[in-house]
Structure formats: structure tokens, C-alpha cells
């Protein structure tokens, strides 16, 4: 699980789209890990008469990528096609009846459990050859509501009126409720892990933790049960962010909301914004796979000339400062870490909110290598 590369893989996978008054952009990047085990889903306009509805999800796999990849492909269908979700939908006279809040809630839970049950019967799971598991966090956006469903330690947040107004809860083995379930199933929590090994207490897959006799699927050492939250939509809703712990390990909910909000005033490309978040997290020291989906509502901040100009001024200030330092400092003080240090103290309050110096590290690096006088003993570079 914990193997790392010599240098991070920084190729990014991007996707974006719009519809139903929403726009989304996503980015995923392998980073320092030897394997890429994250997966994601983004669908605007759902089948079965739910064209006004949309679905977004992030899956963070462990011990392999099988379960996360399968969830990304199948979770949505399992949720919206099951009996509980369809509920009392009456389509006989051609008019579509929207599922009730209760139906959606029940349907989401049923979808998670059925998908888990189904994966359990896959030959490589039965044989134990594949031991992979995955967290899942998803948001279903209907015309009136946002349904959040979380299983594990990926997280979704809602930014409303300039503030992080809602966040899903992470399922960690040390949480009292989780610990109680684990102990009731005959397990223990050591070094904050299930039986000293698994760092999340809820996940899809992980079938070696789901074999306790006499206990139901939601009473096992690891539970596939999603925790579901419903928010009424409001004109003050700005955006949603869904991300795995590779992002949340190095940024708080408030930092990420502030950062995304500030970037929305500089570009309307949500893919570009997702890329900046991922780069910033890499520079902040994240060693994990990273995945992020940003979904904007009509109330999201718009690109502003003032903000764009301010960002250009910051870039110009950085460039000027680097030029000065390169001229003024003796050669032994011209290395990149020293330049970074000087910039961080001198330009401290000009960096993007929530991102700080890390949000500008890429720009600083490239400017530094552009301006630095060419000398032979070029060390590693960026
Ligand atoms: Mn992770």
C-alpha cells in the first residue's frame, strides 16, 4: 500500500461538462504513489426520467484499483435503478414523478449495499486473489436538493455564500460509533486502524473484513453503509468540491473553499482550477493519489477584472523579486529553496487565500529557471 516513486507522476486526467445549470471540472493525478487507485464519475442528466438530476463521485481505492474502478462504473446505476430509489415512481401515464426524499435516501443505501454484494461474487474476490477496497463519496444534485452520500474518508463540501457550509463526515476507525461497531464485530482499533491495518472503517470491497458470522452487512468490521445527508438548494450555493484524502490531508475545508472561490474569480475553467488545487496539494506535501471534482452552481463567483489584474500583479511582483534576488545575492544564496524562503517572507500576504505560497510554487519554479543565469552544474531542476 505504501510504496512511493522516486519522483511524482504529474500527468493529469481532466474532464469537464455543463448542463442543468451546473458546470463541473475534474482532475486526477497519480502523484508519488506507485499505483493510481483513485477513480471518479461525473454525469449531468441522469437516465430513467431524471434528466434534471446530476451525479458526481470520487472513489479512493486501496490494495488495488479493481473495486474503485468498478464503483466508478456501477455505483450510479445501482443507486438509480433499484426498487427503493424508483419507489412509487408512476410512469404509466407518461408523466415523470420525482422520487421522494425518503426514496432517494433509501435508494442510495440500497445501491451501495447491492453493489457491494455484487462485487463480492466476482471470482477474484471469492478466491481472495483481489483484496481491494474503496471509499466512495458522491453527490446527487436534483432541482431542489443536494444529496450527499459518504462511505470512508473521501469528502464532499458545499461552499455557500463564501463559506464552507456543509461537509460530509469521514469514517475513521477511532470515531466512537465506528469503534463500537468494529469491537462488536470482534475486531479492534490499533494505531488508529481496523485490526491495526485498514485506515478507514467504511468502504466498498475489503471483503476480508466482512466475514463475521451472525452479523449483517452493516455490522461488519468494515461497513459499506453510506452516511447520507440532504441539503436544500439555495440561490447562495456557489460550488461543491468532492475529493479524496490526498487533497484533504494537506488542505482544510475552509482553505480549499477559499482557494477555489479565489480561483473562480481568475478563470472560468473548472478543469484548470482543479489542476491548481492538485498542484498546490503536491507542493504542500501530499504523497497520495489525488482526485478532485469541482461542481459550480449559478451562484458561483464570476471572473472579475479586478481579481485577474491582482493575480497579474502578483506574478509580476514575484518575477521582479526573483530578478532582484538573483542580482543581489551571492551565488550560494541563489538556490531555489532560498529564493522560495525569501519570497514567502516578503510577499506573504499576497498569495492566494487558502493556497498560500504553494499555490504559486509552480510559477515561481518556472520563473526562477527562466531567469537564472545558465551555469553548467545544473542540479536536478523542478
Ligand atoms: Mn488516498
Q: In words, what does this structure look like?
A:
The chain is α+β, with helices and mostly antiparallel strands and 382 residues long. The chain has 2 domains: 4-296, PPM-type phosphatase domain (Phosphatase 2c, domain 1, 4-Layer Sandwich), CATH 3.60.40; 305-371, Arc Repressor Mutant, subunit A, CATH 1.10.10.430. Helices cover 34% and strands 27% of the residues. It is built from 11 helices and 15 strands. The protein has helices spanning 66-80, 83-86, 101-120, 123-126, 176-184, 245-248, 253-264, 270-283, 305-328, 336-346, 361-371, and strands at 4-19, 22-33, 38-46, 50-62, 133-134, 136-141, 145-151, 155-160, 163-167, 189-190, 193-194, 204-205, 227-232, 237-243, 290-296. Strands 3, 4, 5, 6, 7, 12 and 13 form a 7-stranded antiparallel β-sheet that branches. Strands 1-2-15-14-8-9 form a 6-stranded antiparallel β-sheet. Strand 3 and strand 4 form a beta hairpin. Manganese (II) ion binds at residues 60, 244-246, 288-289.
Summarize this, please?
The protein has 382 residues and is an alpha+beta fold.
Descriptive key words:
binds manganese (II) ion; 11 helices; 34% helix; 7-stranded antiparallel beta sheet; globular; 2 domains; 382 residues; Phosphatase 2c, domain 1; Arc Repressor Mutant, subunit A; 6-stranded antiparallel beta sheet; alpha+beta
Give the second-level CATH assignment, the architecture of the largest domain. 4-Layer Sandwich
CA gyration radius, whole angstroms = 23 Å
CATH C-level class of the largest domain: Alpha Beta
Question: What would the average pLDDT be, to the nearest integer?
Answer: 94
Largest pleated sheet = 7 strands, antiparallel
CATH topology of the largest domain: Phosphatase 2c, domain 1
Query: How large a portion of the residues is in β-strands, by DSSP E?
Result: 25-35%
Query: In CATH, what is the homologous superfamily of the largest domain?
Result: PPM-type phosphatase domain
Judged by helices, strands and strand pairing, the structural class is alpha+beta
Helix content class: 25-40%
User: How would the global form be characterised?
Assistant: globular
Bound molecules: manganese (II) ion
Unreliable stretches covering 5 or more consecutive residues? none
Total number of distinct structural domains:
2
**How many beta strands in the DSSP annotation?**
15
Distance between the termini: 27 Å
Order of helices and strands: EEEEHHHHEEEEEHEEEEEHHHEHHH
Number of helices: 11
Amino acid at each position: 500500500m505504501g510504496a512511493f516513486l522516486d519522483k511524482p507522476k504529474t500527468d493529469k486526467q481532466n474532464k469537464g461538462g455543463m448542463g442543468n445549470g451546473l458546470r463541473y471540472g475534474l482532475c486526477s493525478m497519480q502523484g508519488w504513489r506507485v499505483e493510481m487507485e483513485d477513480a471518479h464519475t461525473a454525469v449531468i442528466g441522469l437516465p430513467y426520467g431524471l434528466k434534471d438530476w446530476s451525479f458526481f463521485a470520487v472513489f479512493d481505492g486501496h490494495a488495488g484499483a479493481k473495486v474503485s474502478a468498478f464503483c466508478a462504473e456501477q455505483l450510479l446505476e445501482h443507486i438509480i435503478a433499484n426498487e427503493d430509489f424508483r419507489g412509487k415512481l408512476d410512469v404509466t401515464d407518461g408523466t415523470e414523478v420525482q422520487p421522494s426524499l425518503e426514496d432517494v435516501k433509501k435508494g442510495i443505501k440500497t445501491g451501495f449495499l447491492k453493489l457491494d454484494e455484487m462485487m463480492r461474487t466476482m471470482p477474484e474476490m471469492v478466491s481472495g486473489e483481489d483484496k481491494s477496497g474503496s471509499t466512495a463519496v458522491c453527490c446527487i444534485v436534483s432541482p431542489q436538493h443536494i444529496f450527499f452520500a459518504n462511505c470512508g474518508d473521501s469528502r464532499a463540501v458545499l461552499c455557500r455564500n463564501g463559506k464552507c457550509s456543509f461537509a460530509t463526515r469521514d469514517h475513521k476507525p477511532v470515531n466512537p460509533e465506528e469503534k463500537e461497531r468494529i469491537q462488536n464485530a470482534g475486531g479492534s482499533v490499533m494505531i488508529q486502524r481496523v485490526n491495526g491495518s485498514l485506515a478507514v472503517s467504511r468502504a466498498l470491497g475489503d471483503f476480508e473484513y466482512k466475514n463475521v458470522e451472525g452479523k449483517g452487512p452493516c455490522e461488519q468490521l468494515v461497513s459499506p453503509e453510506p452516511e447520507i445527508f440532504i441539503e436544500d438548494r439555495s440561490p447562495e450555493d456557489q460550488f461543491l468540491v468532492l475529493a479524496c484524502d490526498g487533497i484533504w490531508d494537506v488542505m482544510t475545508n475552509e482553505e480549499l473553499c477559499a482557494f477555489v472561490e479565489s480561483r473562480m474569480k481568475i478563470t472560468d475553467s473548472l478543469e484548470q482550477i482543479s489542476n491548481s488545487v492538485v498542484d498546490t496539494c503536491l507542493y504542500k506535501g501530499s504523497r497520495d493519489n489525488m482526485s478532485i471534482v469541482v461542481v459550480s452552481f449559478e451562484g458561483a463567483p464570476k471572473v472579475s477584472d479586478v481579481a485577474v489584474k491582482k493575480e497579474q500583479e502578483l506574478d509580476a511582483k514575484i518575477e521582479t523579486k526573483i530578478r532582484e534576488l538573483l542580482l543581489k545575492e551571492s551565488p550560494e544564496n541563489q538556490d531555489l529553496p532560498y529564493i522560495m524562503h525569501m519570497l514567502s517572507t516578503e510577499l506573504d500576504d499576497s498569495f492566494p487565500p487558502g493556497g498560500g505560497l504553494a499555490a504559486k510554487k509552480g510559477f515561481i519554479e518556472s520563473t526562477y529557471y527562466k531567469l537564472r543565469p545558465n551555469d553548467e552544474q545544473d542540479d536536478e531542476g523542478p
